[in-house]
Amino acid sequence: MSDLMKAVRLHAFGGAERLVYEDAPKPRLQAGQVLVRVHAVGLNPPDWYLREGYDMLPPEWRPRVAFPIIPGTDISGVVEAVADDVPDFTAGDEVYAMVRFPSGLAGESRAYAQYVSVPAGELALKPSATDHLHAAAAPMSGLTAWQFLISLGHDEPNPLQPFRHEPVPLAGKIVLVNGAAGGVGHLAVQLAKWKGATVIAVASGGNEAFLRDLGADEFIDYGRTRPEDSVRDVDLVVDAVGGAMTGRFLRTLKRGGALFPIFPLGFEGRDQAEMLGLTVSSTQVRSSGAQLAQIAPLLDDGTVRVAIDSVFPLAEARKAHERAAAGHIRGKIVLEVQR
After folding, report:
1. What is the 3-class SS of 13-39, one letter each residue?
2. CATH number for region 157-280
3. Mean predicted confidence (pLDDT) in 67-86
4. Cβ 27 vs Cβ 123: under 8 Å
């Protein structure tokens, strides 16, 4: 068997043209790991953050990278081999995972490839009724929505705030999801509905039918209406866009409500939130095979559906990144790995 595989690698930071489809060493199986033959790869914002050198982070937060690196975290595939100390998986199992996140921020996750080694604790059996493309689209976005809304599932220190993030009860509550048509947003809409919330979805106008079909009770086209001017007395805002503008949603919340910015960097309204009696909380999504195992039945029975915006061959990862840069993504972009 060849020691080489096809992969997409970066030899320097930069634009999508830096993604090179080429031969790379096949990963060697180590203790506690599972070697997966990859069928599909889901794209996520950290993929292009890494490609660009994390230039949106403060310099002291940027990981040190040793080129060449293989980007990507989300995979679905078939187990090729299992280390002797891994009892829960066997060759031939169909599996999915978010690989080494955030521990692999410097490029150690290595998902844009024909093979990837995965720590066994980050792996779960693929939902059986879900194909590899949709399964690969689920891990990071699904785990982000799950850890923000359902269960954090770990006790790691929060690098984004001094206190532990705590999901809030959703049954009977009014939840506004901003960026509702995107990867995290469209899954947050469905999980909130599953838990009994009334959901207000905020997205561009062309996504109304899509989001209502996923269960949204109300829809706001941000191109026509500013949600912060028209909505009041919300219990929870999940801002899947986040950033400096997330503070505008404080006025939509009732006293005792909560704002969960998925991307909290740039937000400077915590003092204002405290004065208004509001909670602002965020967290860093972390790999979890156990939580993916909890999500799998929801994907299988259609309680949660993953939307695919577009599919590209692994060899055309550049085009996939260009699609991401164009914006207005509905659901997820996926790379298909040819055999």
Report:
1. CCCHHHEEEEEEECCCCCCCEEEEEEE
2. 3.40.50.720
3. 98
4. no
Q: How far apart are CA 151 and CA 147, in angstroms?
A: 5
Each residue's pLDDT tens digit, 289-299: 999 999 999 99
Task: Give the gyration radius of the chain's Cα atoms.
Answer: 20
Q: Is the pLDDT assigned to residue 339 strictly greater than 80? A: no
**260 - beta bridge partners?**
238
pLDDT digits (tens, 9 = 90+) for 262-318: 999 889 888 899 999 999 999 999 999 999 999 999 999 999 999 999 999 999 999
CA distances from residue 140 to 72, 287, 306, 323, 335 in whole angstroms, order as listed: 10, 8, 12, 19, 15
Segments making up each domain of the chain, as ranges:
4-139+286-336, 157-280
Give the pair of three-digit tokens for residue 44: 């996520």
3-class SS at 47?
helix
β-strands 33-42, 74-82 pairing: antiparallel
pLDDT band at residue 2 using 50, 70 and 90 as cut-offs: confident
Asked if residues 136 and 112 have their Cβ atoms less than 8 Å apart, the reply is no
Q: What is the CATH number of domain 4-139+286-336?
A: 3.90.180.10
